[in-house]
Amino acid sequence: MANTLMVKEAVAERGLDALLLMDDRDIFYATGFLPTDSAALVTRDAAWLVTDSRYIEAAQRQAAEGVEVILTTRERPIARILAELLEKAGAEKLGAEEEKLSHAAWLRLEEALGLRLLPAQELLSALRACKTAEELGSLVAAQRIAEKALEEVLPLLKPGAVEREIAAELTYRLRLHGAEGNSFDPIVVTGAKSSMPHGVPGDERLKAGDFVTMDFGCVKDGYCSDMTRTVAIGSATEEMKNVYYTVLEAQKAGIAKARPGVTGADIHNAAAKVIADAGYGPYFGHGFGHGVGLDIHEQPTAAPSNTRPMPEGAVISAEPGIYLPGRFGVRIEDVLYLTGEGCVDITKAPKELLIL
């Protein structure tokens, strides 16, 4: 899977002569190969992937058609090869990833290449924000793996089970069903720890009457899944049920608002209003959602700070929550695909409160 042609077209549309990519996932997006310590260079009519002996054979097999793979060595380092390619292409306006490169790396590249680098991160971010049908297929496949893992782990959620062991089971079952890796380290928190949105699984044991929140995902074909489910062990108080269904209604309100042309802030605010109206406004402190793709967090976001219209083809999470410090918390997360007519929820796992 590669989007080489779209990147070439974007280079021309932005008035650049070439685009330098150093971020692994940006390189994968443009060339179809996911390396480490490599570089890609894309002009209006050509593309090169520069990598070393660890990856050269795989790169030659996996890189997209039209991408020339070049071997770098100690005698012929990446910067020298890039300089030669730029000179050959007659490139003067060279874009680069200002959000992915350190300031020191930016300055070293300018010196080595003899060109002033131009900020061009938005070019890649805008392209990656709108998923192709092939990309969507990989995102759905990753989501189905996550749902299978959840289905198999739910019977293990019993009093006495340990947070870190449940997290390990999720990781194992994701791999067992075809994942290439985790999207991120799984979050499994119970009891009072469930009030921590990014709590770390520890040695705490599940107890009857407690919530358990599980936030996890996997990578398939380079693309991530992301989901959160909160379940109760044995029983749930009326307050716990009220908080749970408030979060669920908030998620539904955000989903109903999600469509191309609506700002990320508007989507967030639709969900936040439900939570605020229920009296829990101060306990929802994060955004409604974020872009999901090659990275688990990417553009666009459904957050108060995003006042730009959402693009058609975006894939975003839908994850409102209520967190009562020292007591308990609830988060429910699906992933949405924004279409011309609204959105499609690609997550199929049940969302009604499960009391196990």
Written account of the structure:
Helices cover 35% and strands 22% of the residues. The longest helix is centred in the middle third of the chain and has 21 residues, at 133-153. The chain has 356 residues and is α+β, with helices and mostly antiparallel strands. The strands form six sheets. A six-stranded mixed β-sheet has the order 4-3-2-1-5-6, sandwiched between helices. The mean pLDDT is 96. The protein starts with a helix and ends in an 11-residue tail after the last strand. The protein has ten helices and 19 strands. The chain has helices spanning 4-13, 24-31, 56-62, 78-89, 103-113, 121-129, 133-153, 163-176, 238-257, 264-277, and strands at 18-21, 39-43, 47-51, 67-71, 94-96, 117-119, 181-182, 187-190, 211-216, 218-220, 223-224, 227-232, 289-291, 298-302, 315-318, 321-324, 328-331, 334-339, 342-345. Helix 7 crosses helix 8 (163-176). It has two domains: 4-129, Creatine Amidinohydrolase, Chain A, domain 1; 133-345, Creatine Amidinohydrolase. Strand 5 (94-96), helix 5 and strand 6 form a beta-alpha-beta unit.
